[in-house]
Amino acid sequence: MLDCSGTFLRLPRALVFLLLFLTAAGCASYGEVQNTAIDDTNTAGGYSLMDWRETHDRGDVTLVLTFSGGGTRAAAMAYGVLEELRDTTFQKNGKSRRILDEVDLISSVSGGSFTAAFYGLHGDSMFDFFEDEFLHLDMDTPLTRSLVNPLHWFTGKGRTERTIDYYQKNLFHDATYADMIKPGRPLIVINTSDLAYGVRFSFIQEYFDFLCSDLTDFPVARATAASSAVPILFNPVVVRNYDTCGDLVTAWPEDAAERARQDPELEMLRKGLKSYADKSQRKYIHFVDGGITDNMGMRAVYDVISLGGGPHRFFKKERTRAPRHMVLVSVNASTNPVTDMDGTNKQPSITESVSAMAGVQLHRYNTATLELVKNRMDVWAKALSTPDHEVKAHFIQVTFEDIDEPKLKLFLNKIPTSFKLTDEQVDTLVDTSRKLLRENAVFQKLLSDLNEQ
I want to staple 297 with a disulfide (CB 3.0 to 4.6 A). Which of 109, 160, 234, 392 is the partner? Predict the structure, then answer.
């Protein structure tokens, strides 16, 4: 299920129906607009892919991490992978270098976005406090209390705005994207979904250009809330689509028009992004859980490279030749929970049915995403290789599917999608994700290749 859905499924049935009723009844609540306008889509100096390319110093390795959704379960797995990358080294020019220092970009959705955002803001200092201040934190209780408090049901401030207030005060302390601009840090791409058009939307300046808006003063808490705002349970995060740029819009959709003729998915993305130019009809954009359009955080990376003209144009802008190693580490917190539905002829409840249907669709889409990106990485590596410069693709998955111990696998698959886990669950998730990465055959081959250079 998507982020926070575990909270929804554990609420008493009467309360679930009450929340649905209040939503259907149209209790007026309004999302606070906190994005500011710009009059020129010049992204230099902002939190943008363009500026990151110009300032980020990369060697022979391009390493991308993708963090899936799944509440604290996903956040803990992502954190364990960061720890393992921190503690794993290879020899470069006679000196020891951490794999973590090779990370160029982190793309995330839902629960994984919290880990990504904390690392983008704090870097290595995150390892000193993240477990205590987030992973072992019970966020479900205060958020659920806010949901069921009758005093909040008929106010103009929606559930999401109260959640953002909590994130601002207790997690991000009013940090904005300006605070994410740090030399040497990877680009953090937090992803959400445009509810009206189903567009995958990334919190980088290139996407905010479509809205004629400045990302640098946008609160990080709002981005993570947008990435994890499950529909019905949470209101969308609302941003203004300004018309202050006139006819000036980013060139991505037009540049991709010809290539999109042969790529239906690229054409769908292109049309979705072009819709932001309709300022009269799309005055406000409503963002919800990023897991709806990509629960792996992986297709956003694919979108950027595809929109940018493919690997040749992407790497041409940043260096004279391609890297020797293209690495993608996918941290997938999806579970296959055991159900007793088939052990009885009793009709499943509404929540059980909704959970099962969503789970089936999610797993199918995840499988399709994994195959798409893995195959495309191989194609890109081959296309970028020359007789004297081979480019290798390394597709690494950290997933519960690779666990050999039945008891451990069962334990982890029973961990709910929520923001309240036991200490044992958190510690086991962190330790297991570290071990899964450390023992991954493709990761071991990457280390061997790096040490032989």
Answer: 109
